[in-house]
Amino acid sequence: MGLCSCCCRCLELLCSVLLPPLGVCLRHGCCSMEFWISVLLTILGYLPGVLYAVYVICSVDPDRRRDPDEDYVYVG
């Protein structure tokens, strides 16, 4: 984990404390499921939104999504 990566993570965490969906948006994008869950939880209550945003930023890898067709081997 480099210095730039650490600074970006700290900025995302700071944004997620001030406005939880913004921190998630910076990490995962605006059209991700994590972002919309963060928006919903923030509307329902500020604290659940912050807790979820911090959890998502610290533990969920944004590159975990892969093409489901990559698992198949085509023989022709």
From TrEMBL:
Keywords: Membrane, Signal, Transmembrane, Transmembrane helix. The keyword Cell cycle does not apply. PROSITE patterns: UPF0057. One of its GO terms (cellular component) is membrane. It comes from the Eukaryota. The chain crosses the membrane at residues 37-58. Pfam families: Pmp3 (PF01679). Residues 1-25 form the signal peptide. InterPro entries: PMP3 (IPR000612). The keyword Metal-binding does not apply. Coiled coil: none annotated. It is found in: Membrane. Its main location: membrane. Belongs to the UPF0057 (PMP3) family. This is Hydrophobic protein OSR8. It comes from Urochloa decumbens.
